[in-house]
């Protein structure tokens, strides 16, 4: 009887899990396998290769690694990720969360609403607003700075999309850090303050060690999201002169504009591998943090030594 009951429980569990597994297989696993297969062919949108694609193996991968356009796009993507996600959204999100901690009232709600509004608006709407903001002739930014005629999207394209992405994506970091700061013990902060620790020492020795896991999780998520972000295409179209042709834009142009679906699929697989490398680095750091034994704050000890 116990064996029959255990078998019945496993069958019921399998019945509950089966629909989710079918959805994952249909919408994730099979498309991924199909993309890998396409990446090993010369499949195109038109011509003979569209009707009868030939298997080419790793030729598309070798072509990508040999072409300067791929390495150029990868370099731009890493620059975009580091500038807008790692140095932008993460830092600004923490700064806002730190300044708003413990505050109540209209000011906090107003700041949070404005930051969240930039995050929840559709990408096409946000892109239109920024095109109007950065317009050469009648742009709002030129009007505020008194610099009429400055074409920000042409003269400073990468800086423009980095600032755009910081403005648009900071809300997630702000909310995650706000929740993380709520777990920091006020007693430890007060003890460090009374011991003479400065604001920076309190952050370094009390706050950051306590929320290190949240920091790494946030960096992992926003790095992957930014790496795969297509919204900058709506502002610059990858130009001028391919100066903002990050990987999603490069793959889109290759597959649809040039009609090279096989080569575009191979580029997508390479992009997936880069994402996996980024994820593995952060996961390794998270595991190291989990294995590291907790130790008391150093701020109070430094203050006591004084």
From TrEMBL:
Listed transmembrane segments: 12-34, 80-101, 113-133, 261-283
Membrane topology value: Multi-pass membrane protein
Keywords attached to this entry: Cell membrane, Membrane, Transmembrane, Transmembrane helix, Transport
InterPro entries given in the database record: MetI-like (IPR000515), MetI-like_sf (IPR035906)
Pfam family, one: BPD_transp_1
Presence of the UniProt keyword Repeat in the record: no
UniProt domain ABC transmembrane type-1: residue ranges: 70-282
Main subcellular location of this protein, as a coarse class: membrane
Subcellular location: Cell membrane
Gene3D superfamilies: MetI-like (1.10.3720.10)
Family: Belongs to the binding-protein-dependent transport system permease family.
Name under which the protein is recorded: Sugar ABC transporter permease
Organism of origin: Streptomyces johnsoniae
């Amino acid at each position: 009887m116990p064996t029959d009951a255990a078998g019945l429980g496993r069958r019921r569990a399998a019945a509950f899990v089966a629909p989710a597994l079918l959805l994952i297989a249909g919408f994730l696993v099979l498309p991924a396998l199909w993309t890998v297969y396409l990446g090993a062919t010369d499949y195109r949108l038109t011509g003979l290769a569209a009707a009868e694609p030939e298997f080419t193996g790793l030729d598309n991968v070798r072509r990508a690694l040999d072409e300067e356009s791929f390495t150029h796009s990868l370099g731009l993507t890493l620059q975009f990720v580091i500038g807008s996600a790692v140095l932008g959204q993460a830092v600004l999100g923490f700064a806002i969360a730190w300044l708003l901690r413990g505050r109540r009232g209209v000011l906090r709600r107003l700041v949070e609403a404005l930051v969240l509004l930039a995050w929840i608006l559709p990408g096409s709407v946000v892109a239109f607003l920024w095109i109007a903001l950065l317009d050469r002739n009648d742009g709002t930014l030129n009007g505020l700075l008194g610099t009429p005629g400055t074409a920000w999207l042409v003269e400073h394209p990468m800086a423009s999309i980095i600032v755009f992405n910081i403005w648009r994506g900071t809300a997630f970091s702000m909310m995650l850090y706000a929740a993380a700061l709520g777990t920091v013990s006020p007693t430890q902060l007060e003890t460090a303050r009374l011991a003479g620790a400065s604001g920076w020492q309190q952050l370094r020795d009390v706050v950051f060690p306590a929320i290190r896991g949240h920091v790494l999780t946030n960096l992992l998520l926003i790095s992957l999201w930014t790496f795969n972000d297509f919204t900058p295409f709506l502002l610059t179209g990858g130009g001028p002169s391919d100066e903002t042709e990050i990987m999603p834009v490069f793959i889109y142009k290759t597959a649809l504009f040039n009609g090279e679906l096989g080569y575009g699929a191979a580029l997508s697989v390479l992009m997936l591998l880069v994402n996996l490398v980024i994820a593995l680095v952060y996961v390794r750091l998270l595991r190291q943090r989990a294995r590291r034994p907790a130790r008391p704050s150093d701020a109070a000890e430094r203050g006591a030594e004084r």
